[in-house]
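Hi! If you just cloned this repository, the fastest way to understand the data is to look at a raw example. We've pasted two of them here, unedited. The first protein comes first, obviously.
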Amino acid sequence: MDTKPSVLVIGDLMIDRYITGNSTRLSPEAPVPIVNVKHESETLGGAGNVVQNLVSLGATVTIGGALGNDLAANQLIEMLNDEAITTDCIVTDHLRYTTTKTRVMVGSHQLVRFDREHSHPLSESLENNLVDKLTGCMEQAEMIVFSDYNKGLFSPSLTQRLIAEATKFGKKVIIDPKGNDYRKYKGAYIIKPNRHELAVAANTNPITSMEGLKTAADVILKQTGAKYLVVTLSEEGMVILSENSFVTLPVKATEVFDVTGAGDTVLATITYFLALGLSIEEACELANHAAAIVIRQIGGAKTTVDEIIRDINENYKRELTTIN
């Protein structure tokens, strides 16, 4: 596709670090395994997953958020620059660490994870600085995404200020939410929780049926005034809900190996195709195919428009074979 929609992603930025090796014995100092390190790697985490998915699809992306004043921040900016991401809307918080999650892996088993982070809200002056930076970016963006990982960036006050600014420019805000109070997302166009997140936010029992899902969604729709809820159901697909409609999209995957990162792929794909002018139903249908592609792979993955088209064609052939 020649069209490259412009998307602004605002979110919690972090680095995912992996230390991999093997272990054949316990330490003589304590009953813990000794890991013989073979490989170390880093990748973008948090909102960076959404950014990478958008870039892979073909969008032009600007990222906004807050980093610490540390080596990890420099490394993260470098990683974003390598992806051709515009980083002008990032502020530096001298009172926080840049979030880094370090996982020690033995084979495919995660032995332990170390998190280095602060999750306090931004100070008033830093919040004002970030809003000033983001205002200019919003004007240029076709779609705006909030990728909330509950690391302190999306305080109720800042979230509402950003939604108000986006509304002023006539921009639609799509939110990947966290936490148990969605009132801070009031005014969003789309909120995309998974089934568990929706139940927690609506303060209902675990969702085990479509009726339960509709009841919980009704609570959130009334609470936030969102135009749509898109609820992801892991290997069962997704559901689009609004005040007057309910659309179920079954999963397109023939095999499910790993659902890691599928939510970020869905968010990015919906955003990308809405920015190209498709309807919510069309964008979600394509996002369902994108999710099917990534959950057939091990580890967080990305996809492309060509792969989505290929998956649609293969799915169509399978359906024809079944009918015949």
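Ok, and the second one:
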Amino acid sequence: MTPPAKERPLRILVAKPGLDGHDRGAKIIARALRDAGLEVIYTGLHQTPEMIVAAAIQEDVDAIGMSIMSGAHLTLFPAVVDLLKQKGASDIVVFGGGIIPQDDVPRLKEKGTAEVFLPGSSTQTIVEWIRANIHPRAEAA
């Protein structure tokens, strides 16, 4: 009898879309996710939606976490969700956080962002949400 295969760690792409040049929060999140045992790929600054989606597909990630402080979240988050659909990768979950007004959260969720973490969200809250809501993609597992 063959033992069951060990489930691989979740793979999360942490991305900084747009012209936002502040990445301290993204780096804190990336480190917290790594410390929690997840595999993390960090894209660095100034990523376009196309670059983010290409990296996510190439790296076989289960989710994309975007951090944004520039105010362009209503454009950039849905652009990533739409590109994932166009590329046949709509099973990659998109979540994000940063300086996002509470009033914009429902609009982001309507356009396909699974969760939005507002300023003050703890890293533990984010890790717990990921563990409860993100699962290895079938084709990547």
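That's it. A detail worth noticing about the second one: Helices lie at 24-35, 49-58, 73-86, 105-110, 123-133.
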